[in-house]
Hints:
Elements: E1 4-9, E2 12-21, H1 30-41, H2 55-64, E3 71-76, E4 79-84, E5 88-94
Antiparallel strand pairs: 1-2, 2-5, 3-4, 4-5
Amino acid sequence: xxxxxxxxxxxxxxxxxxxxxxxxxxxxxxxxxxxxxxxxxxxxxxxxxxxxxxxxxxxxxxxxxxxxxxxxxxxxxxxxxxxxxxxxxxxxxxxxxxxx
Length: 100
């Protein structure tokens, strides 16, 4: 699941890489989906996700605006993560030659 979308951010070009899809109706909590996706990208240095971000409010919000064009963005272990109301989980990486 390595879909990429380009967006302009702060004058630079960034790529969002789709790393997972969360099912808000499924048994897994959002933090489990994010941890699984980030673990496949690289380690969180052994820290639990909740030391970086509280995903419960994000999950409640995104569940309440289903099929809406809404998302939440936060930083986890020096990466920017975006979760959309449709369940798409993406991480942002700088395009080669671009700096933050």
